[in-house]
Amino acid sequence: MMGMRELGTNVGSVLASLMFVWAIFKNHFPYRLRGPIEKYIQKLVKFVYPYIQITFHEFAGEHIKRSEAFSAIQNYLSKKASSQASRFKADVEKDSKSLVLTMDEYEEVPDEFNGVKVWWVLIKHTTNSQSFSFYPNPDEKRSFKLSFHKRHRELITGPYIEHVMKEGKAVFLKNRQRKLYSNNPSKHWYGWKRTKWSHVFFEHPSTFDTLAMETKKKEEIKNDLKKFRQGKEYYTKIGKAWKRGYLLFGPPGTGKSSMIAAIANFLDYDVYDLELTTVMDNTELRNLLIETSSKSVVVIEDIDCSLDLTGQRLKKKEKDGDEEEKDPIKKKEKEESENKDSKVTLSGLLNFIDGLWSACGGERIIVFTTNYVDKLDPALIRRGRMDKHIEMSYCCFEAFKVLANNYLDINSHDLYAKIESLLGETNMTPADVAENLMPKSDEEGVETCLNSLIEALEEAKEEARKKAEEEARLKAEKEEKDKEESAQEAVKVDENSANSVVKENGFHK
């Protein structure tokens, strides 16, 4: 029998001969003759080699955008590679606590789906292109190559690839470091590496456990969020976009920002902090919405201060029109200022949160915050837009107990009864209560902090009493003054009437 060495030599000779013949064929045969021959050669190769290959490139599109499919495959194979590959790339994610292993270049990782075996390979191509582009191509191009037998074409191109995409996205959500985004001015949207949103890692520690609020109210909000997170099919059934609006209102210092962080941490969502004053018009607002991802909380804080959304701006223009016509310089300065100001309208904002564009993507929480809910247009906060209204009120005793546990690690104390009584008589924000409970030095203990809070509550109670007395005094003085003015007006009317009668009688004489 022919030995392995002889067999290898013969195979090598055959391959070398074929390569030599192929080179002569390509160089010397006319193009019109090569076409039909290459066609039959490809058919022969397909018959001999019954495998199909699918390539997933890392970058695609006109502006070299990273492919979502490539990212999903990379995340999916990170689990397979850790148990089957022999060469890895390591990366640290999620606040430097999670080590993620991915397959190295040219490493082959097998996979099995419904009894069918497939093979994945990561390919890297290095280019030395000298061409110039406003969006330059990366020097290294990577791609995943999937190989499988042609008899399993329908299974692999359908259910298997869908399975890989789904599992890859789940791995990404599990390992990702959540982010806090802020919108950039539109002049920074274009060019190489320019984006509409910039970000930092979201690391706010607030949770519903640390939130100073009544337990019943917190449980109600948590149940609402759970229902929303699991409601994809329900929202599709009722024909609504998969989003929900939250209106947080109350005095400053009542924990509105902490509530937003607690919602994001509870749902494990990213946060988009939208600053409306940097958005020039409704078109830019829509473009920003399109760039937000699903599983996110879109926040507009202090909505009543962000923009004039009630039409008062138009009235002001009409009022100032005559003055501008008299002063051309002032008119020009006014026009230049208006060109720089945001032209986002109430209609554009409503379309953003509840119109056709709100259905672009899904699984979003939209949050508005305000200190003065009465200033907002009713159309902006009606149910269906801001579905849940949450009042962030002054600190109650139950909220105080949460803060005391957070800051002092105590659940009860002899001074609790006095604090409960004072909180029932005085309005103090959770932020002010927390400031008094926070030890300012190592020498300050539980007793000192609680007494500090009691003192602050008593001072606030006394100030509120003096303020109420002053307001009552001013009100009484105003009423007395109004009575005097009314009496004087009555006397004047009587005198005028008498004079009128005298003149009239004198005229008849």
TrEMBL record:
Among Gene3D superfamilies, the record links this protein to:
6.10.280.40, P-loop containing nucleotide triphosphate hydrolases (3.40.50.300)
Region of interest called Disordered, as start-end residue ranges on this chain: 316-340, 464-509
Which processes are annotated in GO (biological process)? response to stress
Note the Pfam families from the entry: AAA, AAA_assoc, AAA_lid_At3g28540
User: Does Hydrolase count among this protein's keywords?
Assistant: yes
UniProt keyword terms in alphabetical order:
ATP-binding, Hydrolase, Magnesium, Membrane, Nucleotide-binding, Transmembrane, Transmembrane helix
- Bias category Basic and acidic residues: which stretches? 327-340, 464-495
Top-level taxon? Eukaryota
Q: What positions does the domain AAA+ ATPase occupy?
A: 242-396
**Entry cofactors:** Mg(2+)
Which InterPro entries does UniProt cross-reference here?
A: AAA+_ATPase, AAA_N_dom, At3g28540-like_C, ATPase_AAA_core, ATPase_AAA_CS, Mitochondrial_chaperone_BCS1, P-loop_NTPase
The record's GO molecular-function terms, alphabetically, read:
ATP binding; ATP hydrolysis activity
Can you state which reaction this protein catalyses?
ATP + H2O = ADP + phosphate + H(+)
Residue ranges crossing the lipid bilayer per the database entry: 7-25
The UniProt entry's sequence similarity note says: Belongs to the AAA ATPase family. BCS1 subfamily.
- What is the name attached to this protein's record? AAA+ ATPase domain-containing protein
Taxonomy of origin reads: Eukaryota, Viridiplantae, Streptophyta, Embryophyta, Tracheophyta
